[in-house]
């Protein structure tokens, strides 16, 4: 049995996966405030799940940040209570077993590469596009996290090939200006639309309005698709993935997976065919599933050594 936990800003979820990847149990609670309270909430979910199933298993945790390779402490987390704590070690001490933790976008990518939309792909780039813009890289079913555990963080690259009106860009929480996240996240799309039209509606509403022929929304979505495609093309030129999987709230925009491939092909460096860009299969289960699959990498390494 593999247990995964998805630690989010508003909820904590546990899921138990059997050897075939089927979810045997799935439960969630509201995320409490304070680091210690978060630890005990996770432990309570895991202990309760194991008691209900009558089985103990490995545990992986998806976190909204990363563990520093230098210090072992959480960094770059938008849930600031986690920053500066060794969450994997603390959970291991409480639950009396090894615990693996990884960035939630990485867990999303691992889930979709293992048994999701990109299960047949060798190189997979998983995109989380919603309130922010994140990503994860899998090669041969294994996560590629990088020397500083920031592999896949394309949302904090500058927007490629900026037009004159895009050169400065908005301030990003990371301290820089004009990051991809400030151009194509959900809040960014809503902000740009409001600045242009004076209408305060959310990204999904803008996309639907464009489908219905709203001229302002059509213009906004054309800019959105173009910026998204430029951003992805830079990833394609470096990684040349077999598949790109879209996740997060913006992946629910039905036209996104249709609009992006030809646009990305036009910006990327002479691909022979459009890069395969697909919506995720597991939806909001991908984070917790990917967390559970963190221990599968041992099996892959063992298979490759034979």
Describe the structure.
The protein is of the alpha/beta class. The relative contact order is 0.15. It is globular, with a radius of gyration of 20 Å. 39% of the residues lie in helices and 20% in strands. β5 (66-67) and β6 (74-75) form a beta hairpin. α5 packs antiparallel against α7 (215-239) and α7 (215-239) packs across α8. The chain has 2 domains: 2-104, ATPase, nucleotide binding domain (Nucleotidyltransferase, domain 5, 2-Layer Sandwich); 117-280, Nucleotidyltransferase, domain 5 (2-Layer Sandwich). The mean pLDDT is 93. The protein has 10 helices and 12 strands. The strands form 3 sheets. Strands 3-2-1-4-7 form a 5-stranded mixed sheet.
Number of strands: 12
**Total of DSSP H or I helical runs spanning 4+ residues:** 10
Rounded to an integer in angstroms, the radius of gyration calculated over CA atoms is 20 Å
What is the domain tally? 2
In the predicted model, the low-confidence regions spanning at least 5 consecutive residues are none
Look at the structure and give the mean pLDDT.
93
Give a brief rundown of this model.
The chain is of the alpha/beta class and 306 residues long.
Give the tags.
5-stranded mixed β-sheet, alpha/beta, about 300 residues, globular, 2 domains, Nucleotidyltransferase, domain 5, 10 helices
Chart the SSEs and their pairings.
Blueprint: E1 2-7, E2 11-17, E3 23-30, H1 35-53, E4 58-63, E5 66-67, E6 74-75, H2 87-95, E7 99-103, H3 104-115, E8 123-129, E9 133-139, E10 142-143, H4 181-184, H5 186-197, H6 203-211, H7 215-239, E11 243-247, H8 256-267, E12 277-279, H9 286-293, H10 296-305
Parallel strand pairs: 1-4, 4-7, 8-11, 11-12
Antiparallel strand pairs: 1-2, 2-3, 5-6, 8-9, 9-10
Helix pairs in contact: 1-2, 3-9, 5-7, 6-7, 7-8
């Amino acid at each position: 049995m593999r247990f995964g936990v998805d630690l989010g800003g508003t909820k904590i979820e546990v899921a138990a996966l059997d050897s075939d990847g089927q979810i045997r149990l799935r439960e969630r609670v509201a995320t409490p405030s304070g680091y210690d309270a978060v630890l005990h909430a996770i432990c309570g979910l895991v202990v309760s799940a194991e008691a209900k199933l009558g089985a103990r298993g490995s545990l992986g945790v998806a976190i909204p940040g990363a563990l520093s390779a230098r210090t072992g402490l959480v960094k770059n987390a938008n849930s600031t209570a986690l920053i500066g704590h060794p969450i994997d070690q603390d959970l291991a001490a409480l639950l009396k077993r090894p615990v693996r933790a990884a960035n939630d976008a990485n867990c999303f990518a691992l889930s979709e590469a293992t048994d999701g939309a990109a299960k047949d792909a060798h190189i997979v780039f998983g995109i989380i596009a919603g309130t922010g813009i994140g990503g994860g890289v899998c090669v041969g079913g294994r996560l590629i996290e990088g020397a500083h555990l920031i592999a896949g963080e394309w949302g904090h690259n500058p927007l490629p090939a900026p037009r004159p009106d895009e050169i400065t860009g908005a301030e990003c929480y990371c301290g820089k200006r004009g990051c991809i996240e400030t151009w194509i996240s959900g809040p960014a799309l809503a902000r740009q639309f409001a600045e242009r039209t004076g209408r305060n509606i959310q990204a999904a509403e803008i996309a639907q309005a464009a489908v219905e022929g709203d001229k302002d929304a059509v213009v906004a979505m054309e800019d959105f698709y173009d910026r998204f495609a430029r951003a992805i093309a830079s990833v394609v030129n470096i990684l040349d993935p077999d598949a790109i999987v879209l996740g997060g709230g913006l992946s629910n925009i039905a036209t996104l997976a249709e609009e992006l491939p030809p646009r990305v092909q036009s910006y990327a460096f002479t691909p022979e065919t459009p890069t395969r860009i697909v919506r995720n299969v597991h939806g909001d289960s991908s984070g917790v599933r990917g967390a559970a699959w963190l221990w599968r990498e041992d099996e892959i390494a063992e298979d490759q050594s034979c």
